[in-house]
Amino acid sequence: MSPILQVRNLVTRFDTVDGIVHAVNGVSFDLEEGETLAIVGESGCGKTVTVLSLLRLIPEPPGRIESGEAMLYEGAARRDLLKLSEPEMRHIRGGRIGFIFQDPMTSLNPVLTIGEQIAESLVEHLGMDRDQACEHTIKLLARVGIPDPEKRYSNYPHQFSGGMRQRAMIAIAIACTPEILIADEPTTALDVTVQAQIVDLVKHLRTELGMAVIWITHDLGVVAGLADWVQVMYGGMVVERAFVDYLYERPQHPYTIGLLGALPGLDRKGTRRLVSIEGTPPELMRPPSHCQFAPRCSYAFDRCWQEIPPLLPVGVRHEVACFFNVEKGRPW
Amino acid sequence: MRESATCDLRPVTCDLEARGLRYRLGRLLRLLWRDRSGMLGLTLFVLVAVAAVFSPWLSPHGPLDQHLSISKQPPAWSADGNWDYPLGTDNLGRDLLSRVIYGSRVSLTVGFFGVLIAGSIGLVVGLISGYAGGRVDGIIMGAINIILALPYLLFVVFIAAILGRSLLNVILIFGITDSPIFARVTRGEVLRIRRSGYVESAKSVGVSEWRILFDHIMPNLIGPLITLATFEMSAMIFYEAGLGFLGLSVPPSVPSWGNMLSAGRKYLTSAPWIATWPGLAIMFTSLGMNLLGDWLRDVLDPRLRRARK
Amino acid sequence: MQQYLLSRLFQSVLVLLGVFVLVFFMVRVTGDPASLMMPREASPEDIQAFRHKMGFDRPLIVQFLDFLAGAVVGDFGNSLHYKTPALPLILERLPATVELATAALLLAVCVAVPLGLIGGSRPGSLWDTIGRAVGLFGQSVPNFWLALVLIIFFAVRLRWFPSFGRDQPKSVVLPAVALGVFTLGQLVRLTRSAVLEIRGEDYIRTARSKGLAPRVIYIKHVLRNAAIALVSVIGVQFGYMLGGSIYIETIFAWPGLGRLAADSIGVRDFPMVQAIAVFTSLVVVALNLLTDVAYALIDPRIRYGD
Asked: Is the entire prediction scored with pTM above 0.90?
């Protein structure tokens, strides 16, 4: 498999009047064709800002992408998404990279029909005319599992249920068969039963269309059946990254361990207490020059308070940013 | 394990209501200083207010002194002008600068008391409507809608024509006809606050309705009402001038900007400056009030307060 | 949507009824109509005779019902001054006022909306500053004074436009500018703030994520949503313009309803004033209703509400 996206040292800041928010502090990752990467972390850890930065959808004041590169591969050639001009970016957005947003109610324009909102992508990127676009849109609606697509084409977002709206959003995202699909917590705002359906839909579509997927969530339960790789973020940085199975079986970073420990398990007897991670979320205004997780970590020792641990491999395709080897019970 | 300090102790995001009045006023002034247009608005308003209060000391002549020999004299910087009468004189030889300065008295009086009356009536009506609910509320709102559907100007002019020219009449007319707007805003706020979560929880621990009224509702009303008052005052100054223009405001012996405009209209071609100065005065006063109103709205709107720069 | 419109229609009828009541009593309560309408030198007997002739000595309720019944069939009473029925006089003058109000509104909308759109899409830019200044001044300038200034410059000095009357097509320009300037200011500010607010909405971010051109985003996505807020204001303002052009028509000697109203007040022709008041209110209420219809049509959430 060949790489399709390579992100190196992405740094994004926001200038607010209360100070500078260091949202993303040096994030790097690779994405191969057809692969699914899950980015996991709590609210405010920078996962959304990371992917929005890739598409340059960060509002430029107050945000700014300080440094880094995001190489998008197109065959043999590659381009840095962070350096493209605005017209070039527009070509990428929707055309090469599709985006699914979290809340389908607010993310769809209330005064335009669903059909129109899908068709305009087709017109913009694939140069279709009205009729072609309309026809194709109806097929897309059917493909994402919306019944009665001809009628639904002329309906407005408020006439759809939550799950239907999200399916429509997916249709918008995949309309021009992008190579990469980015989904920012697409199931968070939905009922549990509908969540499963949406996840299934995306799994089918990614195989059908051969897309690489970046799936952002704070729900570790969803990740298991969906992702190839998992990347855990905390305080604007990647703290662990591994093949999905490795992560669940042998998590290395104390934060990941905490997250997994906080999951209720169906297959265990109900005697284990849920572990919650003590302390408060990291301070993004004045990021410290030591490990961000140290204040909440039960394994922290003096080195943790002096340097920021780099992300280093600790096994086959398993990286961790931590000075302490939890398994062995001593520093690395 | 160390605790990370995440409570943001900056004043904007912490409990504003808990701070004392002096602190809040100080903060208000600091915010004003940062907002240039708000400063400008306040400056203009203060200028006009000063002119109104200190008219006798600021005017070079009496506003009613006629010097027929120098009637219709152009402003000082033109050929036939002289600096004794900086802005020129009108058709009866009265000094325009003095008349403009004195005219501010009428305008500000009408504006201030008109808004006071409209606000008082509107406040009471709005409170009744908001608290009574049901039928009473429906009737009152219906009445308000009816009054607001009327061709406002036509009625004001008509009533003024019947009642005759006097300052008191003008103030009363404006005060009464403008009160529906205040009533509507008051009612809206009352309903919003009474339905809000914290009032419900206050009631559930037995806080009396009177306390809720004074502790929660009244303070929250101040913001929107003051902002509205500023804009309505500007509007009333307009309307007074308009009435004066038609000869329906204060008697011609009293200098008012509207009267001056009315007189100036006759001499538009021969002595255009007579009409120019009162118009500019109205415009700058109105400008000042609008800027001030904008700034007040930005600062007093509780929703914006939290996210304020 | 039907339910919404039906309820608005019902409300409008109620408001209209209320307006009738108010107009009727307003004229009678502020003084004895008979003595107000007669010249000052009239003797008490003359006044009494007049009162009887006009039917002012009948019980108020009777007078009101008479008035109401007449209005329904289109009889708005007779003008004292012209000695002819009031309604035909009003209708004769109506086109001029409508022409003026329409011109003013068109001017205001065509300048304000683009200006507000550009300003809102580029806050802090030069166009934004211009737009905000225009908005502020538009709302601060007393329009009758502006009328005078316009006359001095454009009619007298430059002689580009006539200063009074309705003889030529370009006669409408100066009055329309004077009448529309306040609405222009208001609309610029409203459009700008609507655009600013909508810009930050999630669905605009979605539109950008689709790689749509900025022109498409602003006109198709942003403006369509902004229109919802603008429509109500435009409707209300149009109503004001139709009813409040007394000053402008007087200054420019424009032969419309406003001038008729001013003249009638001047000669104390109260039946005429009453008729104009009722008629104008009717138009305003009808306009408000039309605005609600337009609003319902534009916003699909109301049109196809569940």
From this structure: no
